[in-house]
Structure formats: C-alpha cells, structure tokens
Amino acid sequence: AQTVTQSQPEMSVQEAETVTLSCTYDTSESDYYLFWYKQPPSRQMILVIRQEAYKQQNATENRFSVNFQKAAKSFSLKISDSQLGDAAMYFCVLTQGGSEKLVFGKGTKLTVNP
Amino acid sequence: NAGVMQNPRHLVRRRGQEARLRCSPMKGHSHVYWYRQLPEEGLKFMVYLQKENIIDESGMPKERFSAEFPKEGPSILRIQQVVRGDSAAYFCASSPRGLAARPEAFFGQGTRLTVV
Q: What is the pLDDT of residues A22-45, one digit of tens each?
C-alpha cells in the first residue's frame, strides 16, 4: 500500500522569506511520481511541481523547488521569496507508475504574513 | 481551452434526497477521475472512468454511490439517499491519455455538498 505523510498541519512564513514543507511517503514500487499540489481558498487544485522517481536531479519551477531524498523516502517543497499569493493548502501526492490513482497526504496549510 | 468544469459549485441537499454532481473534462480528455475530500483531509480516490466505461471503482462506497461517463455529455457522480456523512467536497480530474500513460491530472474546482 502507498502512503503519504505530511507532519506539519500548519506553517507560516514572512513575505519574501523561504519556507520548507515536509513530506514522507512509502511505496514498494521503484517506478513512481511525486507531486506538490496547491489548493487556495478557491478550492482549485493547482499542480506546483512534479518529480519522477528515476530522476536524481531535484525538480525546480521558478521559486518552487524540491528536495527529493529517495532512500529516505522524503520529498520536501521549498518556496523561496514567499508571496501573499502562495498562501494555500499544499498537498504532497504520490502515484505509482502504471497506476491511475493519486494518493494524497493530509495537507499543510501555509500562511504568508505581510 | 477551458479547464475541467464542475457544477454546481455548491449543493445543499436534505437527508434522503439525491445529489447529482457534473464534470466536463478538458477538451480532448477521455479519462475522468472522481475524488472526495472530507474536512481536514486530503483527497481520496473514488472512481476512474473512460468514455462509457467504469474502469476502477474501488474507492466508491458500495451503496448509494454511482458514476457514469456517457458517450455524450459530462460525467455524473450520483449519490442517492444522502446522509450527513456524505457532506464533503467532490473533485473531478481529467487526463488526456490516462495517468498510467502520463501522470498529469487536471482538476476542477470541486463541488461542495452539504447535507442538512
């Protein structure tokens, strides 16, 4: 069975500062993908960043980057130069290669303070 | 290219009534997924459909819940005889070729169902 654990229910950061959201996962498969999704108050689920397990290089999308530690089964999200618009629930998500299902963590609520 | 469209955004039903939630996938997407989000929880998989076929309904409650994706028209998630525990946000996602081919899902804004 696959599981995703986000141990930080809430986090806060000052505008322009950097924050890291934690995620650990468990899967017995070697072929899998990890994602971070953002859910602002509008409820729209927005893909922030994606990481293929077979890639050693950490994914980066502008101010968002991940620290993918495969052996430790850890997948943290770093948000640099935080902006007010970054305030949202952030979900860590796992899918196995060949699967049609996404497995979500419980989420981390990020507050950005001006 | 419009995104995944779900309606209604909000739905209030009395206990015992039926709820029908609609999802129009992105243009060209023939794979549709329904997820449920309970308060303070992540999304949980319910069902995966392709046009006219239910492929995987392992996450659907055995009773009162059904889903369809007809040849024409939106996908429908139907909940009969709703109970208070059905109150949740229901999300639809679509994919052009299925997640197994390319892990990329596009989500709608969800329908928040409240049972009173």
A: 999 999 998 999 999 999 998 889
